[in-house]
Amino acid sequence: MKLKSILAAALLAVGLSVSAQTIIKFSHVVAADTPKGKASEFFAKKAAELTKGKVKVEVYANSALYKDKEEMEALQIGSVQMLAPSLAKFGPLGVKEFEAFDFPFIFDDTAELHKITQGPVGAAMLAKLEPKGIKGLAYWDNGFKSFSANTPLKNPADYKGKKFRIQSSKVLEEEIRSVGGIPQVMAFSEVYQALQTGVVDGTENPISNFYTQKMHEVQKHLSLTNHGYLGYAVIVNKKFWDGLPADVRGQLEQAMKEATDYANKIAQEENDASLEGVKKSGKTTVYTPTKEERMALKKAMAPVHLKMADRVGKETLQKFYAATGFDPAKL
Ligand code: LMR
Question: Sheet holding 82-83: strands in order across?
């Protein structure tokens, strides 16, 4: 009898501690060994540490749970609690302002970018997600994109008539059109095969994504154009977040702060290491455009700014220009 009640008490205790643990499913589409992959694992570790095991973050990499479009829907209905989609993927959600990050050549470097992502403009943009049932927690860097194809990409004319896979951003569609290319929106998980089978001719991505998805195996030429930025907003289901006990939420905010510092610290290193990997593979010719070639691309893509200003809102775009000093009229 005594033994029975001890057992019952032990089972109850185990049951209680199991049910007291909050699970956060964190889904993303890139490989584990990328800036986002590593930062999400870092966050999971910190969250467990700071909440003393009250929260368990389960990270699902490489579209294991959901592809791009599906993951947004899954977050809104609460099938997953956390994501870090690229800033180019918020348009379909109706928050088009985020596509301001996609304008070609708008940022010269990450210092300019951080004026937005680490300042009031970035914070105000995250707040726009709340009516969609989403809370924005942080911005994580990846890096600047380069173009690839099976033919050399030196001058704007080299893009003409080629199909390029892009993320779901109208600004990116216009970017490709500005050089005579044909944009094709496609989920990230489908890009390798589309390149392999010739469904598309080329693509754009930071090198960390290019290398970890093995795109260098199916693209003969990589041109280090650094023409646009790709980074992330870490987002959670708002109802879930607001429903957490205040102390736990505070601990998770701290974990997120540390994960953000980590993400932004490793992003460039990861891209540099990936570039070395691509070069070592010997499968892709890596080309650095001359100053003149890069300027020609910048000029060819400048009309995108005027054409798409209304899409993201002139006010938002002006704030970006004020922070970065970019002026398309001067090109
Ligand atoms: C892409 O679809 O190319 C990127 O947004 C993938 C990612 O999450 O970095």
Answer: 55-60, 22-27, 82-83, 229-237, 134-144
Q: Is 120 within 8 Å of 319 (Cβ atoms)?
A: no
Phi, psi of 22 (to 5 degrees): -95, 130
What's the token pair of residue 293? 């070639």
- CA nearest 211: which of 277, 117, 146? 277
Mutate to test the pocket of ligand 1, among 212, 230, 271 (most ligand atoms within 8 A of CB): 230
C-alpha torsion angle, residues 123, 84, 107, 213 (rounded to 10): 180
Closest residue by CA, ligand 1 atom 1 = 188
Q: Could you read off the pLDDT of 94-145 as tens digits, one per residue?
A: 999 999 999 999 999 999 999 999 999 999 999 999 999 999 999 999 999 9
Residues with CB under 6 A from ligand 1: 29-30, 86, 142, 167, 188, 205, 209, 230
Cα–Cα nearest to 206, from 194, 222, 193 = 222
- Of 141, 134, 66, 137, give the one whose Cα is nearest residue 94: 134
Return the residue whose CA atom lies nearest to atom 2 of ligand 1: 188
**pTM flag (> 0.85):** yes
Number of residues assigned to the chain: 331
Quote the ligand 1 centre to 17 CA distance (angstroms).
37
Dig out the tokens for 106 from the structure: 């708008």
Decide: 201 and 162 in contact? Cβ < 8 Å. yes
Ligand 1: nearest atom to the Cα of 206: 9
Report CA(260)–ligand 1 centroid distance (Å): 18
Reading the block at residue 60, the tokens are 């699902």
Distance CA 182, CA 163 (A): 5
